[in-house]
């Protein structure tokens, strides 16, 4: 007998998460406590409930630039090794509580050196937090693997340095590289040196593209930079013509994206908040999934979007009528697209994801 698709039941399903920002997923209470502990006095309020509301409403702006503004407060309290370790550990605990079995969590080390830490020390603190979070989750009976993506800010000039950081830590928890930040005016081709460095070292990377900016951003990320995945990539829908009979014609960029199986790290709630799409019901996720693009479900920023993987999946279920087999497909899509070795991906798919979904599907 098939298990009903409720939030509580979806919370029991195994999940794979590829696009989650460490500084966008703090617990509101932790922000308040760290601000008090380390003397950060910039918070708009120290009331935990009011602060949670502030992050949610400030982020729901209809603009990527305005959406990013509240991050000044989370980054502001993450300037010591102790704070970074705590945030990373709690991140793993929260994901494990939502039955996430694999996650790649990203953050920009260059944003966390105002307190005098080196880039290496920043990464070491986060990786230690992830490792301790995995142990804490295991003690609660939850198995989760968390790996790190180091991100360079696209408006800055440290991308090569951050790419080198990714390679230095590649065997101890960092599995890839990313660029993020406001897209308009900061094309990915400004960072070709970093991407070339990653390719020369046989390393993987994803690029935020096609969220606030359109097809040119995706074109550059794929054709010039050689991205393995696209962060968001939602505007690829602009290269797809849907006909009255529900058939569709793909443009050359959309075709190559699908033909090469380049994964899309789609973040439904966040895409609505930033104005990339008007609503969940109008999100091109359903069209892209129907056309067999490699779509994945992601949270982006759990604090800002007041969301979890289970809530993102439920919103898709409610909007598009998906069943357990669809959620399984999206989860396997994500696991196939992860940056860990093939055998590790296959083990999680065959020994964790498929068996647990089989129970839910009935």
From TrEMBL:
Belongs to the metallo-dependent hydrolases superfamily. Adenosine and AMP deaminases family. Adenosine deaminase subfamily. Substrate binds at residues 21, 23, 181. Zn(2+) binds at residues 19, 21, 208, 300. The lineage of its organism: Bacteria, Bacillati, Actinomycetota, Actinomycetes, Mycobacteriales. Its cofactor is Zn(2+). Residues 14-354 form the Adenosine deaminase domain. GO terms for biological process: adenosine catabolic process; hypoxanthine salvage; inosine biosynthetic process; nucleotide metabolic process; purine ribonucleoside monophosphate biosynthetic process. GO terms for molecular function: adenosine deaminase activity; zinc ion binding. Pfam families: A_deaminase. This is Adenosine deaminase. Its EC number is 3.5.4.4.
